Amino acid sequence: MLIENQNLSIQVREDLYELKQHGNLDYPIALYHVDSRQTQLELVHWHWHEEIEYILVTKGKARFFSGDTCHVLTEGQGMILNANVLHRTKAFENTECMYYSVVFHPSYIFDRQNPSLASSYLFPVTQNHRAPYLLFSKDDPTTGMLFDLLNKIITANQLQLYGYELMTKSLLIEAWLHILNILKTKDALPFKPAESSITNDEERIKNALTYISLHYADPISLQDISDAVHISKSECCRCFKRCLKITPFEYLIKYRIYSSVRLIMHTNHSVSDIAQETGFNSSSYFNKMFKKYIGCTPSSFRKKANADPQNTAQLLEGHIHPNDAKMLQNFL
Question: CATH 1.10.10.60: does it fit domain 259-332?
């Protein structure tokens, strides 16, 4: 089956690499229909894969996360995720969302026996750190063609008429050329592979974030994080600054605080217990950091959230920086 309307369970390695094979060796393409009501907690968890992914929203709206950025997409809008990019999805507030996802390996349109084509047309995109994703909309004069092409790809794989594989390949190539032209217009298309330092940064950040997600409740240090990715403490800080614009310690504190928000909302654990569970060895320091990032004390937040559990977003609105709000949504 190429079309799946199911409770998507993302199986990943420790570094969040998705273990599922999309399609097969002969036809490395998979088409998914995702209904937010059927996914666990109405989200698709953090993961990454070697394939390119095209997403087209057909109903409602949802948050689509790529690295540390978040975009709310509605019906008629979509997103193209580059290879090896960390991403996840969450329904917007309590709204219903449905979208199609086309996942394909670039080897299907770039023959391994012809490396010159890959060097000219594939690597400038897949190894381009300035293009982790591309947004498109049916109403946008520049990107609207991508909406039309993706619709044709979806229809071809739904009907599976004779020759649909060839039709899909043709449409994917046409879409790829359109992507190249868009990136070229945006001056975001280097016609050479990205520098190895950028590739190293992405790999290091993936491993560092995985380490933090697994050990944030432990008394970990900058040395522990840098050791986990086999670099010095100073290089670890530079890597975080280059990719996420914050320090490793600041990311760790935010991760702990935002994890505590979920516990405050969904458990009856005491504030002091939650402080311990999320890696704070001092309740007073936990209260201080919580107020810094959330805008009120943990106890005050719990009272407000319990009084109006459906309006958590409104409760947080205006108290935290928009960039922090993107990260916080990962935990709610």
Answer: yes
